[in-house]
Each structure stands twice: as C-alpha cells, then as structure tokens.
Design brief:
This protein is an alpha+beta fold. About 20% of the residues lie in helices and about 35% in strands. Strands 3, 5, 6, 7, 8, 10, 11 and 12 form an eight-stranded antiparallel beta sheet that branches. A five-stranded mixed beta sheet has the order 4-9-2-1-13, with no helix packed on it. A two-stranded antiparallel ribbon has the order 14-15. The chain is globular, with a radius of gyration of 27 Å. The protein starts with a helix and ends with a helix.
C-alpha cells in the first residue's frame, strides 16, 4: 500500500525538478542589454557637460520598453541639469530623483568626492507610432542624453576634463538574487525591459554596463572601484597652440623681426 505513495512522491519530485530547470533555462535565455555613456561634450557658453546614453544587445530586433536609469556622480564637480535628445518615441514621464549620500559616502563607496549624488530616473516608450529604435548587436544605439552644469571652477579652462559617471550595477552576480543588482540596500540598480507586445507585454533582460571614467575594484569590497581618466574633453573654450608648434611660430616671429630690422637699416 505504501508503494503508490512513494511513486507519487517520486513523480512530484521529478516534476518539481523539471519545472525549476525550465525556470533556470528561461532565465539563462534572457537577452542581454549593455548600456554605456559616450560622446562627452562641453558647451563653453553655458558651462554644461553632456553625454549620450547608448545601448547594445546580444539579440537582434529588440526595442527597449522601459529603462530604470540609475547612476552615481561626484556632486563636487557636476550638478544635474536635464535629459533630452530622446530618440524615437521615448521620453521620461517624470523628473528623476536626485539623492545626496551621507557624509563620507563618496570616498567610501566609489573613491570620489562628497557630496555623492545618486540619479534615479525612468525612460520609457510612450509613442509606438514614432520610428522604432531597434538596439544594434554590433554598434551602439543612442537612446537619449544627460546634461550637467560644471560647478567647480577649477575644472574650467583645462585640456582634460574627465568626470566619473558610475552606473548603479555591481560587478558580479549576487548569490542571493541570481543577477547583478545595485550598490545600495534594496536597490535593483540598472533595469531594462524590452517590448513584446506594446503596451501590455514586456520582457526583462540581463543587464550589463560599461563604466565611464571609473573602473571596478575588488568584488564585495568598498570602495567598489576608483576613477580612471579615459574619456576626456577640453574646457579651455579657445584655441590653444600645441607645444610642438611653438617653435614654428617663434621662427616666423624672428623672421618678421629680422625683415623689419633690415628694412629700417636700408632706409
């Protein structure tokens, strides 16, 4: 009489294993979206600094449905101004939330200065009638831009301005959640979903990031990384003669002076 019960339990166990294996397979098959900041530029008139937000996918034909945009920046250098340059039918329905960290959080978390600022915003597809923005698998696809005010005057008039912008996504997959998460407690970090059937059905993705003027350090240790000047812009707002060209200009100047001197001697 006990054998049927044992058989039933065995069947239930096998079904459970198959279901869990199916969930794991689905999770592993999620498309991957990678996001980066790119194309920094400085406007001399407004003293503003802007970067593009670009994406790349490992799967062809995908459109972003919603994008939780979360990143950190050094508030002693930059002040958030606005987002814009939205492509296709995308927009931000609400203004982002800008949070300031506790004293010492900048050096503690990311080896940057206080005040540490955390940008928490959302971009979504609101106009499906606009030309579709299909995320490329080989190039980088522009979605929108973010602009800041350069508030520290010591960074104006320099040839290499390289502020760090730190995407809110940890380096490794979190063992508890089985995916990469943000740096703060209860923080999902950067999250991107894709269109399945607009506007009712979307699908999650596996997210990855390319950090901007900042690099990861040791996993599960703080600071989680440190600034590294890689992508820089010029804030001098004028023509600067390269050092290598000074000899040419000096030679020309001496020739002009010599010509004037000879002309005066003849007169």
């Amino acid at each position: 009489m006990k054998r049927p019960i044992i058989i039933k339990r065995t069947i239930y166990s096998l079904l459970l294993i198959l279901v869990m294996a199916g969930f794991d397979a689905i999770a592993q098959q999620l498309p991957e979206m990678t996001v980066r900041f790119a194309n920094p530029r400085f406007d001399c008139e407004t003293e503003s600094y802007c970067v593009d937000v670009e994406l790349q996918s490992d799967t062809q034909g995908l459109e972003v449905f919603g994008f939780n945009v979360r990143f950190f920046y050094d508030g002693s250098i930059l002040q958030y101004l606005n987002t814009g340059n939205y492509q296709g039918g995308y927009t931000s329905p609400d203004d982002p939330l800008i949070f300031e960290g506790f004293a010492g959080s900048g050096p503690y978390y990311f080896a940057v200065n206080d005040p540490l600022k955390w940008y928490n915003g959302y971009v979504e597809l609101t106009d499906p009638g606009a030309p579709p923005v299909v995320v490329s698998t080989t190039e980088w696809t522009l979605l929108f831009s973010v602009c800041f005010k350069v508030i520290n005057p010591i960074y104006l008039g320099v040839t290499e301005f390289c502020p760090p912008l730190i995407w809110d996504l940890q380096k490794e997959i979190d063992a508890e959640y089985g995916e990469k998460i943000g740096f703060l407690p209860g923080d999902d970090g950067v999250s991107i979903s894709i269109v399945v059937v607009f506007p009712d059905i979307s699908e999650p993705t596996t997210e990855d990031v390319v950090q901007f003027n900042w690099e990861y350090g040791e996993y599960l240790a703080f600071p989680a990384g440190a600034p590294i000047p890689v992508i820089c812009v010029d804030t001098t707002c004028g023509y600067v003669i390269p050092v290598a060209n000074w000899a040419i200009f000096l030679a020309i100047g001496l020739m002009i002076m010599a010509s004037v001197f000879i002309y005066r001697r003849r007169v």
